[in-house]
Structure formats: C-alpha cells, structure tokens
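User: Hey, quick favor. My workstation is busy. Could you predict this chain's structure for me?
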Amino acid sequence: MTNQKLAFEAVDASMAEALAYRPPMRERTFPPMEDDQHQAQVDKPACRVILQRGTDLHPEPIRWLWQHWLALGKLHILAGAPGQGKTTLALTMAATVTIGGRWPDGTRVEKGNVLIWSGEDDPADTLLPRLLAAGADRDRCYFIQGAQGVDGKMQPFDPARDLDGLRQAIAEIGGMRLLIVDPVVSAVTGDSHKNTEVRRALQPLVDLGAECGCAVLGISHFSKGGQGSDPAQRVVGSVAFTAVARVVLVAAKVKSMETGEDARILARAKSNIGPDDGGFEYALEQVEPIPGIQASRIGWGKAVDGTARDLLTDPDDDGSAEDSNDICEMLRACLTADCWTPADEAQRSVLKAGFSKKQVWTASKKLGVIRKKGENGARDGWYWRLPQDSSSDEDSAQDSKIPNFQNVESWNLGKESSPNDPGEKTEKEKF
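Assistant: No problem, here it is.
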C-alpha cells in the first residue's frame, strides 16, 4: 500500500506541475491596432505653444512704399489679361523707387534699391531697357540670375532651396525696397491650383519680405472667362494667391466713360490694409532710351473712382433690359438737343439713383448722346447733348459754339482732351 500510495502522489505532482506551466511571453510581431496608435499619439509630448499677451505688443502703423498701393514687408499681386503691360507696370514702379520719383497720385517715394526675379524675360534685352525707358537708376537695379552650388556651378534659382541665400544677398546690398517676382507662380514648386501647396510655398516669400522690409510684388494672369465677376477671383491658380496677398492690383483695357475709346486702367481689386477701390488710367508708350534700343514704358493718366468690378466690367454687359430703359428715361430728362450740359451734371441724378457709371455709359450710347469738349479744351471737361431730329448747317455751326463752364465747381469727370480733336494732344502724347 505504501508503494502504491507513493506512486499516486508522484502522478499528482506531475499533473500539478503540468497544470502550473505557462509558456514564456513572446514579443508580438503583428501591427498595433488603431486604438494603440491613437494612444501613442496622445502619450507623445506636444510642441510647446508660445503665446503673447496683448499688453506686450506695441501697435505699429503700416509702412507704405506707395500709400494704399504698395506696403513694405507685404505681398502684393498684380494680375491682368495678356497684353495689358503688367511687367511694364511693375518695372515703371521699380524705376520710380530707384530715383525717388513721384507716383501717379503726385506723392514722392523714398529712394531705394529694387530686385527683380523674372522667369520669362531676359534682363539685358527686355527688363533693363524698360527700366531705362522709365528713367530708372540702373545702379539700384538688381536681377536674380541663379544660384551657385557647392561645386561652383551655376544652377537655376529655386525658392525652396535658395531663399536663405537670397536673404543674405539682400542683407549685403541693403536698402532693398521692392522685390518683383514675375510670374509669382514661379515661387510655387507644387501644384499651383491646390490651396495648401500654394500657401506653403508663398509663406517663405511673405517671410522674406517681412524680414527684409521690402514690398513684394508678384505678377500673375487672369483666367479665361469670368468677365463681370470680381476681378480678384479671376487670378490664375488657387484662391490662395489672392488670399495670402494683402493687396491685389488688376490691369485691364476698358472703354473710356467720356470718349468711348479704349483705355487701360490699373485698379485695386482687394486690400486688407487700406482702401480697396479707385485706380489710374495708363497708356503703353514705345520710346528709345538708348540709340537703337526700343522699349515700352507707362504713361500715367488721371485718377478714376469706383470699384475694380465697376471699372473693368464691359459696359455692354451691365444692367438688365428693364434697368436700361429706366436709365435711358432718367438720362433723357437731364439732357436736351438744343444746348450742351456738363457730363457730370447730366449723370449726377442717375448715379444718385443707384445706377453705376457703366450703366450710364450704356444708356448714353443707346440715346445717341453727342459728346464735345468745352471752349477751353481739356480744362472745361466734356459736355453732352441729345442728337437733333434732323441735321442742318445751323446745327453744325451750333456744335462749334459750346458755352464756357469754367466756374462749375462739382467737376469730376471728363478732364482730358479728345484724341480726335485737332490741335489738342491725345492722352498718349502728353507723356
């Protein structure tokens, strides 16, 4: 019995040992579940967020290169359809900066250096001649040619790689007031139609302007179609171009309100830091700054009022048929066929009724309004009258006898002479 009991006890011990056995833990080789990944991100220490109290900040005014048009340390966009002279406009602005000249509104700019990065035009045969045509000081004009690698070889300028080198070069030159990027899409290495990629690509350019204290002017194009829409929304590419820019300028060819002739206008389409309306007429002129060298420049015209959408919309596309009939009747009541009326006086009541200048212009064409200058030419502005029912020699003689309204104080429109009048300089010949 004793031996049998011992045998049973041995069996029980073996079974207990077997039941108590646990295999060693092995490192798992399968990927963690989503909950584990989320927990790992939660457990990972976040970057420190820096806050600044308002009392530690000192309010600063916007520093303007050109009051309400070009701001130091800010990004601007200049856009327009092909053939509107966008590059020539930018170079004329640059030339004004280099000589401390006057802007179209008569204000003077502090003299400074300008830097031009162009991916489309050659500096020697295109950019420099245009600068000289605008009267630039060539000693203050700089052009980005490329970047030199560690091996000493010249390579194309790449903003994603070379902005630090450009920042250093600008610091060495000093006095940089304006940086022109033509076209601004050159600064975008990714997809120019993707909002995130455009913002990411433009931010270093924005930072560069802020650090160097210079205005950055990027040139872009209008997309096809979109007439009648907000001009700022017609800039090619992602909306981030106009969203990141503090000021958006647009250039376009329109019909002159006074003469019906083609005129070019530079207007503000957007501004987060100042007025976002108004503009200036301009003309493209061909001159010879150096014997044998032809180049274009800008001849500035008068200031114009209104939003960019009003100024740049085709007048034939403005207003419904019902509105057009109402304007015609109102304008007809302000004019006669027997005497001349100052143009702005004839339009005043119609404009006060809420109609735009473009709608007034369309109505004047439908009524066949006749336009003439005053006896003293451009100083007297423009005069309107309705057409006679029948023409005669007496009517023709009456056309040449336009009263002198020199004492009319509320004169805002039609200050320029007609291009068709003999003996008077056209808008283009004045410059």
